[in-house]
Write the structure tokens for this entry.
Amino acid sequence: MKRLQEVKSNEALDLYYPTMCEIVDAKQLTDLEKWYELKLPGGQDLGHEPGQFVEVSAFGIGEAPISISSSPSKEGSFELCIRQVGTLTKVLKRYEKGDTLGIRGPFGKGYPIEKMYGKDILIVAGGIGLVPLRSLINFVLDNRQEFGRLIILYGAKNPSELLFTDELDVWQRRDDVELHVTVDQGDPSWEGNTGVITTLIPELDLNLNKTIAAITGPPIMYKFVVMSLKSKQLPDSHIYLSLERRMKCGVGKCGHCQINGVYCCQEGPVFNYVDIKPLEEAL
Amino acid sequence: MKPKVAFFDFTSCEGCQLNKLNLENDLLDILKHVEIVEFREAMDDKADAYDIAFIEGSISSPSCVERIHDIRRRSKILVALGSCAVNGGVNAMKNLQPIDEVRETVYGEDKYLFATLPAMSVSSIVKVDYEVRGCPMTQQDFLKLLVSLVLGKQAPRYDSPVCVECKLSENECLYNRGMVCLGPITRGGCDAICPSFGQFCTGCRGLLDEPNYIGMLEVMTNHGISLDEAKKRMLLFNSNEVQL
Amino acid sequence: MECYSLKQSDVPALIDHLGAYGEVIAPHRKGDVSYSFEPVKDSEKVVLEYNRTLLPLKKCFLPPTEKLMDFSLKDMSYKPTEVPIKPAVYFGIHSYEMQSILRLDHSMLSGKAESNYFNRRKKSRFIGVSFSPDEYHFSESVGISIEEMEGFDLYLNKVSDDYQLYIISDKGKDLLKGFDKLIQAEPIHVEGREFNKKIRYHYNRLPRVFQYAYHSKVWAEVAERCVGCGSCNLTCPTCFCFDVNDQVEVTAEDGMRRRSWDSCMLSTFAEVAGGENFREHTLNRTRHRLYRKFKYITDEEGLPWCVGCGRCTAFCPADISMVDIINDLIREDEKAQFHKTVRV
Ligand SMILES: Cc1cc2nc3c(=O)[nH]c(=O)nc-3n(C[C@H](O)[C@H](O)[C@H](O)COP(=O)(O)OP(=O)(O)OC[C@H]3O[C@@H](n4cnc5c(N)ncnc54)[C@H](O)[C@@H]3O)c2cc1C
Ligand code: SF4
Ligand code: SF4
Ligand code: SF4
Ligand code: SF4
Ligand code: FES
């Protein structure tokens, strides 16, 4: 048990004060999602790992956990992509280039990059789940020779909800990226796959020993994706998932993010499947 | 441009209206942000549009229905003020009696001259964007909402029970003093004003989303009131919400 | 351990003496039948014989609501709230309450240590007092005796009408410098202060019971009666979850960010935008509350995270009893064990 006497004065931290960051660019990507590029004072690097998140705040409105969408290899600024669903996120729709946002973080554990070097990376992104995974994807692309295959499965409800379409085009054209996009419901101009994301999995030809899967999406997606991957015989320990929970502090104090006894903001949001399998509240 | 704000009155005791006029010091601050273009009634000949329409009172006659549709058409944001507007409030007690009986008690011999409907919340007729709960609503709540609207923020619904604020103020729980209180299932946001002054909560701000009705009745009857009395207490402000 | 006798009538003088170190906070009467920790204005008003305060001592270190910062919407700037390091004496504290502070230390200081809490806690001194258990106390069942002195600087043990004062730490000794109403004494063992409410198992067997209790029928039975008011968490000395929200002045120009105690028994605690609720039913929440006290943290720290103060039970409008729930789980576990043995 941690005792008061063991804590030195300089170890006690001001945990709740944001750093004010300038929005250097912003763009509405879809009806619901907006992309922002932010700069820390003095152009410092955020120093994050792919999969980590920050707490974004606008005074008078509140704070919310948001994944970092850019790769750590991008210097001088970082990117977020926010879906407008509630009090804060709807107000953020009005934030433009030149405005400032409060940022705390980076928080949590991201993807275990060390363990991923030399491996085939299988990305499974559902909807807004692409936001944190884009950080990993771009990190892999920026260090392409360090990794094996890069397979990206991306599913959205319909074509108009697809995020980062410019980048999807680029990835599509690269021959060192295997991109498979699907939508639940197509529209007349849609020529790609239709069907939920799990329909893309049976086709895959995976090198099981070498493949590491990273999954992010809406809560109901996980069970089905994990099931499909298991039926392909991918070992549990090769599966990483990023879980969403209500979060009020990001620093392991407020208690909101608990999954049974585990604090999602501390042990996660990225978890190895082996570690969450015993947690009844996880999936 | 300052948002154009209007107030309209339906079936209510006007307690909320009075409350609003009591805003005194704060009034000047508010006026900096909004322009009040209408105060109750008299909008027949005006074809104005409003940025924010505040509605008080419940809907209880066919002419009310027509009028509220008209206001909704002209307003960008529509806010229900006070229990009566939010869920029918005390007015909705009449819904528990057959409607003919109500007419008779209220209008006596003339009962057939007046069409009356069950007292309904504004939201059962038109879309309501925001609500300020309470009977009467409190000034702070009204101001909070107004400020949110001025900031363009979706005002969060307060969805914790009155007990939370009661505990945070370290009140002695009325149950420990042998009284019966509706705090556990009532939507808070009032700073537990009644228990803080030794009065039990009557549920004036409406109930939580999925209250444990049976559990609550058990709590109340275990603390010395009859099942009948317990139900009555629960229904007082919330007869349109309670499902027993 | 040094032991002195102190006359009941000299207690106010002791409190006044302690005032030289810093503000003294002690139990006072509140309302008809309750008590509360308040700063001492008149030492005669301090009540040393009390069952429990409404809110736990936690409120002095992690306040029910606390301003984290002031901000300005005009230029999007903020001013942090400085929490000064002030000396204070907490007088008349029961052993379970002290134990709750030690647990709270762990919660707020392990991992990332929080400065707000640390500053409030830094120069605090604790003077314990013995108590007579009422129908709700069960701290003995979670390993905390009435005379448990860990964490205290001084301890007052009621012996017939007067007190015996124990000096537990050097800091405690310093506090007494210049106080001349003490007479050296032999420690007396006080008999007859029994706990009425008991958990049937030793607390170190509880994690095992909980290990198999996840799908127990007991949770649904409790959930049927629980009205979800949150009082059990909000009065618990070891609960520390909080909510954060922003408040804006009527001028729409300035405001503040505050945090306030939250409760995992409230239906929205684990709800996220989009409507997903990770603990949707009262059953899930009740279970979580008890697992937080007897399993999750206990597995890591080896101690129950409940100190047996009885508040969650005494202040529950539905009379849901912590001890009864646990004894029900134990009974169910025994039944299951029995059936297993019979089958074999
Ligand atoms: C680790 C993590 C990463 C995330 N990354 C992104 C991202 O990159 N882009 C994106 O658009 N969204 C992301 N989300 C979801 C995002 O945090 C919520 O949509 C957001 O909190 C909603 O806040 P609000 O104030 O608009 O909504 P409201 O419903 O008004 O929420 C009020 C408060 O509840 C809490 N809350 C509500 N919903 C959530 C939620 N889903 N997750 C956590 N807390 C919640 C927040 O503390 C919030 O301040 C992420 C969530 C987590 C946990
Ligand atoms: S007095 Fe009423 S509102 Fe306050 S805690 Fe008791 S039941 Fe809840
Ligand atoms: S305590 Fe209850 S009755 Fe009193 S104002 Fe609040 S909700 Fe209304
Ligand atoms: S105090 Fe009792 S009724 Fe209220 S949430 Fe806790 S267990 Fe349920
Ligand atoms: S769980 Fe109940 S008895 Fe245990 S410490 Fe908390 S309030 Fe006290
Ligand atoms: S977000 Fe507060 S503890 Fe994890």
